[in-house]
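Predict the 3D structure for this chain.
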Amino acid sequence: MLAAERRDHLLGLLAREGKVVAKDVAARLGISEDSVRRDLRELASEGLVQRVYGGALPVSPAVVDYAARQTVAPDGKQRVASVAAGLVGPGGALILDGGTTALAVAHALPKDLDCTVITHSPTIAAALLGHPRAELFLLGGRVFKHSAVTLGAAAVEAAQNVSADLCLIGVTGVHPEAGLTTGDAEEAAMKRALSARAAETYVLASSEKIGTASRFRVLPWNKVTGLITDAAPDHPVVEQVEALGPDVLTAAAPAPADGTEPAA
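Done. Predicted structure below.
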């Protein structure tokens, strides 16, 4: 099999099965694992796969910069945000992560809600300035412009001195085996620090992130309360995640009245 044919085969396998296991592909095609790993390295260098131990997973489309992410799946993010905002009760304390889905949550919170919001995102804080009864705490540190959040030692230290009822965090990848992932190591560490200070943690993930992975793990599944997604309840990855223990709150788009499939 030619290199180009192997490449097409690997991408097709990834699309069908959601993962590539190098040793299985090598045995099936009668080639060496080194050849498969070399092909996966080349695909990863082009941003087409996320390499993991033993093979590869679909790469998340949510690793582009902040401005570009605002145009990715806006309807799905709004549906996720609507469900997430419903978890914040009067008088509650919320730790709200940065990112475009978290920003949608900020906009979805009722204007008259009496609550406390702790965030490391200047954009989240700015979005809540028009909520007169929301008390805001902005955690300082080095600004990571890619995600419009503060990171680093100062931000982590500040996070260790707060507590809340609920933490809502965003990730770029949601996979039953790889767990919850993001593209930056410091950002992953900050998300862990925020999650550790809340009684419950829910993950915000619009459907394009489901079944994908990024380089750095944020949390394993046993460290989160649940997942909020607009992916369909019978999505294979959603079902696998639910079997691992977390609650899954679905915000899937309603089916059209004429019975046709909803638009992606």
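The longest strand covers residues 198-205.
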